[in-house]
Specification:
Family: Belongs to the TRAFAC class myosin-kinesin ATPase superfamily. Myosin family.
Pfam families: Myosin_head
Shape: elongated
Strand content: 5-15%
Domain Myosin motor: 1-307
GO biological process, one term: actin filament-based movement
Order of helices and strands: HHHHEEEHHHHHHEHHEEH
CATH architecture of the domain at 5-138 and 174-193: Up-down Bundle
CATH class of the domain at 5-138 and 174-193: Mainly Alpha
Structural class: mainly alpha
Region (Actin-binding): 184-206
Distance between the termini: 112 Å
């Protein structure tokens, strides 16, 4: 019920993961249709980049304000941190605080004076500022690290490498928030180099019990996980896309004109192939470099036809092999019969 600094940075990580989900599914997919010259009506969706900026902006972000308070000389408390947030973030549409002098929240009794609220992608979350400054400092005193490094126990010594006199850094150690922000940035960079697949888990109830389905809870998760926008994009778009070369290579055995070798451009070969198979024109579109198939059942049909064709080819190969084997055996027996007959006539 009481969210503090730990929950704040966890929710920040969730926002970044949601942002990359939006980038790679909703935004990237619609931009691909435009790049490929496919006729497309843009589908609106909420981009949570504005929330990520509220938290991680280097000048006006909440983490930057927290670090500034931790480094500022003089008396620093959680209340001074909240006061700074109220000054810097007062006009931000996703930040709420009764102390920000914003007329919308002055009389909001559900929002205590010592708290602020962020309208995250998945809904509003209220944070208690108590402990934010101390938890963000997370200081391990330098002399304690040095004492641990001098211990005789090898494990303890290995746990405190910063105590090594040769590696002592007189600079102030980074705050917990800045370390977490750097870790999240590394994670995002790593994910952007991959081709991730997403599995969205829906929690059916809050009791962790079987056979209980809370419809309101499920609808809330579907709405705030961005699944509605994703489904709209998927239903309006194409379920499958593939460059022309691998598509032709995979399905060329389904058409006599493309099997075993197609001597022209790959796109022309795919056009001949789809026309030969009689696939309705509304089920596919030709992009600049890829073929787009709208409905999964069209792809399933292609795979079924390919499977049947492979079985037919396997049968044909087996038939030819058995015929060759029988002919070879027959010719060998015939040759042996001629040799035996010639030797028999010689001695008869």
């Amino acid at each position: 019920q009481d969210n503090s600094f730990e929950q704040f940075i966890i929710n920040y990580c969730n926002e970044k993961l949601q942002q990359i989900f939006i980038e790679l599914t909703l935004k990237e997919e619609q931009e691909e249709y435009i790049r490929e010259g496919i006729e497309w009506t843009h589908i609106e969706y909420f981009n949570n980049a504005i929330i990520c900026d509220l938290i991680e902006n280097n000048q006006t972000g909440i983490l930057a304000m927290l670090d500034e308070e931790c480094l500022r000389p003089g008396t620093v408390t959680d209340d001074t941190f909240l006061e700074k947030l109220n000054q810097v973030c007062a006009t931000h549409q996703h930040f709420e605080s009764r102390m920000s002098k914003c007329s919308r929240f002055l009389n909001d009794t559900s929002l205590p004076h010592s708290c602020f609220r962020i309208q995250h992608y998945a809904g509003k979350v209220m944070y208690q500022v108590e402990g934010f400054v101390d938890k963000n400092n997370d200081l391990l005193y330098r002399d304690l690290s040095q004492a641990m490094w001098k211990a005789n126990h090898s494990l303890i010594k290995a746990l405190f490498p910063e105590g090594n006199p040769a590696k002592i850094n007189l600079k102030r150690p980074p705050t917990a928030g800045s370390q977490f922000k750097a870790s999240v940035a590394t994670l995002m960079k790593n994910l952007l180099t991959k081709n991730p697949n997403y599995i969205r888990c829906i929690k059916p109830n809050d009791k962790k019990a079987a056979h209980i389905f809370n419809e309101a809870l499920v609808c809330h998760q579907i709405r705030y996980l961005g699944l509605l926008e994703n489904v709209r994009v998927r239903r309006a778009g194409y379920a499958f896309r593939q460059p022309y070369e691998p598509c032709l290579e995979r399905y060329k055995m389904l058409c006599k004109q493309t099997w075993p070798h197609w001597r022209g451009p790959a796109r022309a070969g795919v056009e001949v192939l789809f026309n030969e198979l009689g696939i309705p024109e509304e089920e596919f579109s030709f992009g600049r470099s890829k073929i787009f198939i709208r409905n999964p059942r069209t792809l399933f049909k292609l795979e079924d036809l390919r499977k049947q064709r492979l079985e037919d080819l396997a049968t044909l190969i087996g038939k030819i092999y058995r015929g060759w084997k029988c002919r070879t055996r027959f010719l060998l027996m015939k040759k042996c019969q001629v040799v035996i007959a010639s030797w028999y006539r010689r001695y008869a």
